[in-house]
Design goal:
74% of the residues lie in helices and 0% in strands. The chain is an all-alpha fold. The protein starts with 13 loop residues before the first helix and ends with a helix.
Length: 171
């Protein structure tokens, strides 16, 4: 289960603390905390989702950086990116449920705040890549613009940082 840290609520608005307290006391959160197996099961689902999303994203990013040049970027995208989306479908609900069990402590933890900011930046990076950079890649092109490579480096660094934040929250 998530480690409880000394929390500093002084910088948080009172409505945020009340909302986090309400979340933590919902029947879902209480049930997860009281269950012997539910919290570990949610952690497993969350980790499997991370493996799917980040594993596929890393392989795609490495291709964008020039590895496996014989594989067309668009073909690899059609194969890998659906796995990232499936991982996201596991990560989001499990993450919300895991958060609900310790919402008050997490909301005051700077590591959690950093993780949420990094997730937003990662989402913006994905949006920019798919809206602007990836659309301009011809079907058979094997070399990418510097923007595609930059997006890949940013993606790899963000996901490593997000995973580090997640692990730090557990201890």
């Amino acid at each position: 289960m998530l480690a409880v840290r000394n929390t500093n609520f002084a910088n948080l608005p009172s409505f945020v603390i009340r909302y986090a307290d309400w979340i933590e006391n919902t029947s879902f959160a209480v049930g997860i905390r009281q269950s012997l197996w539910l919290y570990p099961a949610l952690e497993i689902v969350h980790i499997v989702g991370i493996a799917l999303l980040v594993g596929a994203a890393f392989m795609f990013d490495l291709r964008l950086l020039g590895l496996s040049k014989d594989l067309p970027v668009s073909g690899l995208a059609r194969h890998l990116l659906p796995w990232s989306r499936r991982g996201l479908w596991l990560i989001i609900p499990s993450g919300i449920l895991l958060f609900s069990t310790n919402a008050k402590s997490l909301i005051a933890d700077p590591t959690f705040g950093l993780k949420m900011v990094l997730l937003i930046v990662a989402a913006v990076n994905v949006l920019i890549f798919h809206r602007f950079i990836f659309k301009s890649i011809p079907e058979d092109q094997t070399r990418l613009s510097p923007y595609g490579r930059l997006s890949a480096v940013v993606s790899i660094l963000l996901w490593i940082s997000i995973i580090v934040c997640g692990r730090l929250l557990a201890y």
